[in-house]
Design goal:
By secondary structure, this protein is an alpha+beta fold. Helix content is 24%, strand content 25%. The protein has 8 helices and 20 strands. β19 and β20 form a beta hairpin. α2 runs parallel beside α3 and α6 crosses α8.
Length: 427
Amino acid sequence: MSNIETILIPDIGDFKDVPVIEMLVKPGDMVAADETLLVLESDKATLDVPSPTSGIVREVIVQPGDKVSCGSPFLKLEISEGAASAVTEPPAQAAPAVAPPQPQVASAPPPSVASAAPTDTASGATSPTIPHAPPSVRRFARELGADLTQVTGTGAKGRISREDVQAWVKDRVAGASAPAAQGSGLGLLPWPQVDFAKFGPVERAPLSKIRRISGANLQRNAILIPQVTNFDEADVTDLEAFRQMLNNEAKDGTKLTLLPFVIKAAVAALKAHPTFNASLDGEELILKRYYHIGFAADTPEGLVVPVIKDADRKGLVEISQEAVQLAADARQGKLKLGDMQGATFTISSLGGVGGTNFTPIINAPEVAILGMTRAQTKPVWDGSAFHPRLVQPVSLSWDHRVVDGVAAARFLVTLCQLLSDFRRIAL
């Protein structure tokens, strides 16, 4: 005999109205005890919600995008009479896992790394060749190039979490001596082990949460993406005069920086060169018909990347106001998860600090990133005489799997032409 039980969201700690980002089952699916049913994601963590018992899914009550809290019903499960008591017991606390700053979109599988094992079977049975990990962790492992068969799970019944995957990758990069399956190693030299204290006084300082998370993403991107950087310069003398004129005429007090102009120029360049507004998915490109521009924002805890959504539909003042608000929220730690999602292209500017050029690391799954440093006045030869001109250095890092050098050069030429003569954006 079986019963239909309504399954509730368990104690998920100090979280309320948490959005559902993945529903991993559908009516008719058989699930095992502790198998992940859905995934929640707050601005602090990703939470896998397990099944309290085995059974058959009869109804799914919530969908991705819905918000839930502790005690919210989310599905109905048909369970045997013997297992019914397990549902009436207090549900176990959902296992949180540190979430990356920007969500990961499907990307090309990393080279020379064994793929993660397939999803657990409906019965939930595990074997030495099928690691005990929920689908969200399996996808995360594929993105990092981690072999789940070599990862030791620290959760209940050996369940593998995101932290376990990150720790495995960290050990591999550091030259850990853990056994690896054939072809699963990253092929890197061991990290040097040095006793710095023998050379002088030292102290240890913990990395901030942002630096730990972004560090893992940057390391993955630097290892897996064949990145190349092109450099160029744009004459922004006329643009700077235009910017100052707008600021002098502003009645609402909005002061435009160079960033909104660069965002509008970048959107126009992306429209002219759509490959740069794409993502790699296996052997296909996903060409995006929307233009969400991320920009690097410095905070006391590290770098974050808020996103200006639909920048092609917004004017300079609206982009400026939104960027100022997002940067302020970033410094105060108030950014929401949605504020950092969906970027198709990123701009990293060091103009307020200085420098000449640098090589920004691509923010996967994007295929390019623009770096900017401080503009400088230089003598420019016009064919008959030198004239002082304000010159803006630009750096474009691009994924060589998607873009070649000629295309990158053309993109920068387009961008520099737009910055040199902003009237071209109206064409």
